[in-house]
Amino acid sequence: MARVFVAADIHKKDEIQKIQKDLITYLNLENKYLKVVRPENFHFTFVFFGEVDKSILDKIVTKISEIEFQSFEIKYGMIGAFPNNNRAKVVWIGLDEKTADTFNQLSHLVMTKLTDLGSGLEMETDKEIIPHITLFRTKVTLSLKLQGPESFSSISDKMDTISVKKSITTPQGPIYENIISVNGK
Known about the structure:
Layout: E1 2-9, H1 13-26, E2 34-36, E3 43-52, H2 54-65, E4 72-82, E5 88-95, H3 97-114, E6 132-142, E7 156-159, E8 161-168, E9 175-183
Antiparallel strand pairs: 1-3, 1-8, 2-6, 4-5, 4-7, 5-6, 8-9
């Protein structure tokens, strides 16, 4: 059994890490209250499956390997939080509106490919996807009062790879391993 998800990889991990560090400084947060995402784990999730057995994993890999898509430029947009900015537990960076629409079209393509995988597979398909990269999780609930760090909006990146990833849990945090990657045209 492996914890599996499908995600889009990003390239500008150093720039996103700088935003992450600047935000932690700007919000005056102490690291002891945070679970900071390591740069190698930055990605946009399309669907999280959780634990799946080998036969289901093989089906997921087959379906994702059949996807054909056009690579596209993305621009990072706002900083946000789940469940919301007043009760932040997960802090993330999202996409600007135009790129979010393109991401959602690609997300729809991925979900359509995966819908006929059959029973025994839990997928959250009815929720609206907010394209985001998790920057950190908080061990305390905080209120994000953001008016400052806007410089990130000029960062663009390329979304050109979809990967089926396996999450390996370690005491230092998860390690993600690509099982298969599909490159866009």
